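can u pls check wat happens w/ beta-D-fucopyranose
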Amino acid sequence: MPSADVRFPEGFVWGAATSSYQIEGAVTEDGRGASIWDTFSHTPGTIANGDTGDVASDHYHRFRDDIGLMRELGLTGYRFSVAWPRIFPEGRGRPYPAGLDFYKRLVDELLLAGIEPFLTLYHWDLPQALQDAGGWEHRDTVSRFAEFAHTMAVALDTEVGQWITVNEPWVASILGNLHGIHAPGKRDLKAALQVAHHLLVAHGEAVGALRAELPATAKIGIALSLTHTEPFGDSQADAEAAEREDGFINRWFLDPLYRGRYPDDMWEWYGEAVPEVRATDLATISVPTDFMGINYYFRDVVAYDRSERPVEARSIVPAGQPVTAVGWEVYPPGLYETLTRVHRDYAPALIHITENGAAFEDRLIDGRVDDPERESYIHRHLHEVHRAIAAGVPVGGYFVWSLLDNFEWSAGYAIRFGIVYVDYATQARTVKRSGHWYAEAARENGISS
Ligand code: FCB
C-alpha cells in the first residue's frame, strides 16, 4: 500500500465488530439457555442450507486465539455482544455466574492485548423464555432488559468503558416481526412497531441502569442501521416514497432518540398500526447519550410502488451499479451523506461507525484469501469517513463488519463478511488480504488517497 497520506485524528479507534450468536457457538454450554435465534434457526426453511449457530465460528472456545489475531492486526477496539441467555438462561431470576465469567475472561484478555472493549448488550439473541412470555411486544421484556443491563454493569463496571445498548432496532423489529425473515419470524406491522417502540424504551431504561452503576467516564450509545435514501426517478411520487422510506428506516428511530417525538408524517401514515406509548416513554427514549453508533452498508434508491408494505416504496439498485454478494449496492458517498445529515439534523456528541463492511465470494487458495473488492470497499468507505470528519462531523472510530466470517442470519454460512476467513471444517483462521490492508491502515492511522 502506498504510504498513508490521509490521516485520521489521534486516538481514532480502528476496530472490528461481531455479535454473540453469529460467532460463539457452544449454545448449550455452561448453562446457556435458548435464544429466539436458536429456535428460529432450528425451524426448517428459515435459514439457507439449514444452517444454525450451534457451532458458528467456535469463538466461545477460541476467543483467546481470536484476540491474539486482533492484536496482530493492531486493532484498537473490539465490538462484541453479550448472549443474554448465557447470563439469564430463563430470562429472569439470578444471573448465571458461568455466563458472566466468560465475558469477564474475554474482557480481561482484550485489556491485556491493549484493545478497548465496546460491549453491545442486545444483538438480537433474546432469551426464548422471554419470547414465550410475549417477547418484545410485551412491556415486561423492557424491565428484564434493564435488569440485564444492570447486571452487566455490576460485573464489568471498571473494565468496560464503552457500552452499546441495542443493535439496529429497525432490523430487529422489522425483519423479525413484519417481514418474518429474522427471529421470531412474525409478519404483523402493528407488532413490529410495538417491538420497535419497546426496543427504544429498553435502550432508554438501560442507559439509566448503566449510568447508575458505571463510573462517570463510561460512554453509552445505541447502534442504528441508517441509510441514505434517494428517489429513483424525478416524479413527485418517487420523491414522496423516498421521504417515507427515510421516515420508516431512519427518522422513526432518530426522532424519538434525539427529539423526543415520533415524526408526524409517519405517525399519520401508520394509522392504526402505531404503537402504544406511555406518558413518560419519549422522555425515557430521548435520554442524552455519549455517542451514536451508525451501521452503514448501502444507499437506498426507492421508487413508488403501491404494493410494497408498509410505505409503498420499492428499493432499486440503479442499473450498472456495483453490488456485493448479497446484492447490496456499493455506494461509499452514502456514508458521507448519512454522517453529515445526522450531524446536521440530530447533532450527536460523537459518532462511531459501529459497522461497515461487505460480503464477497472468498476462496482460500494456497493459504491465502485474495479479496481486493472488500479491501476497496473498506478503503473507499474510510475515505468518506475522513471526508465527513474534515467537514466537521465528530467521528471517533470505525468498526469493520466483521472480524470473522460468521453466521450471517438467514443467509447462514454461505455469505462471508470477515476480514479473517474461517474454514468451517477445521475452524482454522486465515487473515484475508483485506485484513492485512486494514492492519496497515490501523498501524498508520491513515489510508492512501
Ligand atoms: C447488520 C447486523 C450484523 C450483520 C451485518 C451484515 O445488519 O447488525 O449482525 O449481520 O448486518
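Residues 19, 22, 167-168, 171, 225, 295, 355, 401, 408-409, 417 surround beta-D-fucopyranose (CB under 6 Å).
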